[in-house]
Predict the structure.
Amino acid sequence: MENIPPLSLGTKVEQESLIPEPRRLPVQFTGSASEYFRIWIVNVALSIVTLGIYSAWAKVRTKNYFYRHTMLERSCFEYHAVPMQILKGRIIVGAGLAAIFFAKIYSLKLYAVLLLLLVLLSPAIFALALAFNARNSSYRNVRFGFDGTVGAAYKTYLAGMAVYIVTLGLGFPYFQWRIVDYWASNHRYGNQHFHFNMTSGPFFGIYARALGIMLLPIAGFIALMVVFRPTAGQAPVLLLLVIYPIMFLVVGYVKARQSNLVLGSISLSPAGAAPSETSTHRLAANQKVLEVIWLMVSNLVGIVLTIGLLIPWAKVRTARYRAEHLYVIANGELVAQGSAAPSGNGVLADAATDLGDIGFDLGI
């Protein structure tokens, strides 16, 4: 009988050569200011006429527009929330805020209790918000998900807040890192899980440099005040002329650097697999500080000069800039398994989860 040599898979070098090269996939935003303006003006008008009731439908229309015009590899994202669900959540929020408002008028003790209750509930609201937004978002008919529990949210908040209080505010970067880690590490796309691969150290570096950016001009301003001794009426004006540019400079620096840092530390791995160079998709961002500052300043000036009519223009410009500076480094195809239509949690649970309509600024 002829001896048949065993099937060879090739050398390690040959096997590695078969692994496809990572692909750099740009994110694109295809919306236009004029197109979104028509949606926005109708949303504003109907929300006013209906005393805010239509705002739930306005929210869904806005989300749908921005999701469907955000493209990745010729496919768009989708938003699936139902306006009536959001309206129920807003009624709950509105009733709570009204109770706090009237309590402030009639009983300071009750006001303090309700305000404390709101603070204590904020981690739970945050967790429910992330779950709501994730399960109502999809890409290529596969829903996103969020596995973070309310208990884990409280642990994240308590640990971060403890450091913040003990350090008299200097531990804020650690607090924010804890929140971002909770947000990024618990999301998934279908059966694939996101990972956040960064320690708190870089957060401290960003804020330390931002503090230097803020203090140096202020120190120079104080020196000028000592030398030239302006009058009491001139000093506040000069201070404002220095404060506002510094504010935009610092905020723009933090937003650009933190966005690049956070997004560049997020990866997506197959279910049950640890992040690796050959099976993991990664994000990458390259926002520029001066461009972000110009975006912020020009948006604000346009909105102020037009008494708010350029809000749609500002939102579209911001969405386009963020998309144009965001990439996916894909190892293989962007596919995942998952349900396209997850079941609901019942009327009362949905009403509570729809508090997720509230937005949270993660600093990116």
Remarks:
- Residues 344-359 have pLDDT under 50 and may be disordered.
